[in-house]
Specification:
Blueprint: H1 3-25, H2 29-51, H3 59-82, H4 85-108, H5 114-136, H6 144-147, H7 152-179, H8 182-200, H9 207-213, H10 215-236, H11 241-248, H12 251-261, H13 269-287
């Protein structure tokens, strides 16, 4: 993988971690997520006036990606209700990495080289270790025994989110190659995702009401999410899917670093080792 593609995937991961953390930290994550998607849709609609619509060959993939994304967002929000962000997010991302790596060969004919396979393994292992470490750390008022377990409902929703995420990653990678322009595809999917989620979450209220209510977080998150999405689509259009997806899912490691740097949370030595493992996977993916 060329250096510009690697850096773009890592930047996409950092931006993805940032807007997800902002959504989780909000007082009403479901409403803020809806506001974020409405903001992204407005950006997408304006962008399509410049880029034009993706070609017809991309639209079946857009439909598939939108359906999978709707399932993934719904499952993620349910998982957040049952478990912590620091546990749910990395397990979902690790699940996605493993499913994409296992599926890309027979779905799109991409074989992982030895170095790339080792790199994917490093990233997925680091994400799982991060989830385990986060789950074992007792929160205020919770015993270590309680903190060390992830409720079955949370685990089920988390795994569902990971599998659905893998589904839209594979769809996006195929579609952006058919679409030609990652920006046109990103703008189109931003609109279709918002329409689908607006219908699914219609009980929360009007999308415009939710956007006005949560504009302070929703608008910046929508901008960041759009840029993050377009970056990884550009990478998918030029690089093998599994290594690119693994790099994108280092977002969970970035989320941990955001918590340390900006939220001043402590970082035990074992988490430094997890970061080192994830970082070790980056040059391996570059070699692969």
């Amino acid at each position: 993988m060329d250096t510009p593609l690697l850096l773009a995937a890592l930047l996409s991961a950092l931006l993805h971690a940032g807007w997800n953390a902002a959504i989780k930290a909000s007082a009403a994550p479901a409403e803020t997520m809806a506001a974020q998607m409405t903001a992204a849709a407005l950006i997408g609609a304006a962008g399509l006036l410049v880029t034009g619509l993706p070609p017809p060959a991309a639209w079946p993939w857009i439909a598939c990606s939108t359906a999978m994304n709707t399932v993934a967002v719904g499952a993620t929000l349910r998982a957040y209700r049952e478990g912590g962000f620091g546990t749910v997010y990395p397990i979902a991302r690790a699940t996605s990495v493993l499913v994409v790596a296992g599926s890309s060969t027979w779905l799109v004919g991409e074989r992982l080289g030895t170095w790339a396979a080792l790199g994917v393994g490093c990233v997925a292992t680091a994400l799982l270790l991060l989830a385990r470490d986060t789950a074992r750390a007792p929160s205020a008022g919770a015993s270590a025994a309680t903190a060390s377990t992830l409720p079955p409902a949370a685990l089920a929703w988390t795994l569902a989110a990971g599998v659905a995420t893998a589904g839209y990653v594979l769809s996006d990678a195929q579609a952006v190659r058919a679409a030609g322009s990652p920006w046109a595809y990103a703008f189109a999917v931003s609109v279709t995702n918002a329409l689908a989620m607006g219908w699914r979450q219609r009980a929360l209220g009007s999308p415009w009401t939710l956007l006005a209510r949560h504009a302070r977080t929703g608008v910046p998150a929508g901008i960041v999410a759009t840029v993050s999405y377009a970056l990884i689509l550009w990478v998918f259009s030029r690089a093998p899917i599994a290594p690119a997806a693994a790099l994108r899912d280092t977002s969970a490691v970035f989320a941990m670093l955001i918590a340390v740097v900006w939220l001043k949370e402590p970082m035990p030595a074992r988490r430094l080792a997890i970061v080192a493992l994830a970082l070790a996977g980056v040059p391996l993916l570059r070699l692969g």
